[in-house]
Input
Amino acid sequence: MSQIFPIRYINPVFRPPSEAESLILPLTNGCSWNKCTYCEMYTAPQKKFTLRDEDETLAALRACGEQFAHQVQRVFLGDGDALALSTRRLMTVLAAIKTHLPRVRRISSYCLPRNLRHKTASELQELREAGLSLAYVGAESGDDEVLLRVNKGETFESTREALDKLGAAGITRSVMLLNGLGGAVLSQQHAANSARLINQTQPEFLATLVVSFPQGESRFRQGFPQWEPLDQPALFAEMAEFLRALELKRTVFRSDHASNWLVLKGTLGADKERLLAQVSTAMQHPESAKLRPSWQRGL
Output
């Protein structure tokens, strides 16, 4: 008789690309903010934000331990922002993971900066010591005007504060930015202030995606009517401006999400000049830049 998988998922389920081999453990359903006009992840009716029942979560972990105790080495806490939960509830879950899945070496979660406003530095340190080691922060932009236009609900300062709190607690930070989010009119300040945010916080990981709207742009344009998308050369120019402004000591950089035309990988600042040379080639000689074909982007 086949076993029933012990975790109840509500589709669609999302996770960062680097969590492909992780056990996805939903602590919430959907996203507690869910008002960003560029985001299509949690807009389905069944993804309305709720906290998962604690007893259900703990029972699922016990069952996972019975079935997969020696297989699971990574756990990703879903959905959109598990850190919306109280520190007490998070500590209970982390303790249960340690008990039932003893081979787990990494526990991670998405993190909205707003959810850290009510967590003290000592609470974050507690969570780190209990096993929470990595937080994915979708900053999207470091420019306050862009953030306002897309209804992010954050500012440069609120994002900087959250990243600094995570870093001080020893929690590894993976920051995501959206190339092209400011459109043609705000491209320059989007690049400059995003670089300023990254320079001030020095995250361990940095990723860029290209903004895209598989379900259409109407929702996005309601708050940003003058937005015009960047074509390939303009996207590359914005990326070059962003990279040139970065002053990083040792940040792993990835721009390899399916949305990106140009795949970039390196460590900043060691590989800064090489990455800038790749972008320059894409701008001046796109035919030799090994750009991703449209059909591979799947958007």
